[in-house]
Design goal:
Layout: E1 3-13, E2 20-24, H1 33-36, E3 41-47, E4 50-57, H2 61-70, E5 88-96, H3 104-121, H4 139-150
Antiparallel strand pairs: 1-2, 1-5, 3-4, 3-5
Helix pairs in contact: 3-4
């Protein structure tokens, strides 16, 4: 397991239902290779620097966002609830660049749960968190989660 990041992106939520624009901090719409890759990723969505959602994916981040923005409740998935409450959010992305393990997503899912747990310990669950994948964690998972949450401590 080797996490790289964060890389911050801006998500503008457009008035047309299901539409959004994701750009890097320089306004570029072409995202870097890691964001477009099938590497396991953990992402934290923030509003006013406070985490409101923590997610994981192997899809490109643009594809994962598209899925969350266009869901209509089929098969029980209604998409990102936060998309209905903001005009703009930030997304911080970490990639697990070491996929040599048996199940590379397992580390990312474990860290996701630890990050959400640490956020909860600071006050409240992320406002729009709808799902967490629980797995037994190791000291490495917990250290990685602590490093991620430190990025947000000043706003929590």
């Amino acid at each position: 397991m080797k996490f790289e990041g964060p890389v911050r992106y801006r998500i503008a939520i457009l008035p047309e239902p299901g539409l959004f624009e994701i750009t890097d901090t320089n306004g570029n719409i072409k995202l870097p290779a890691q964001a477009r890759s099938s590497l396991p990723k953990l992402y934290v969505v923030t509003a006013d620097e406070a985490p409101i959602y923590v997610g994981v994916t192997r899809q490109s981040i643009r594809s994962r966002l598209r899925f969350g923005f266009t869901a209509k409740g089929e098969h029980g998935y209604h998409g990102y609830r936060w998309r209905h409450h903001y005009n703009e959010v930030a997304l911080d992305l970490w990639c697990n660049v070491d996929t040599s393990g048996e199940n590379p997503m397992l580390d990312v899912e474990t860290i996701e749960a630890e990050v959400v747990f640490l956020i909860r310990q600071k006050g409240q669950w992320p406002a729009y968190q709808t799902e967490i994948h629980f797995h037994p964690s190791t000291p490495d998972h917990r250290r990685t989660a602590e490093a991620i949450v430190r990025w947000y401590l000043q706003s929590m």
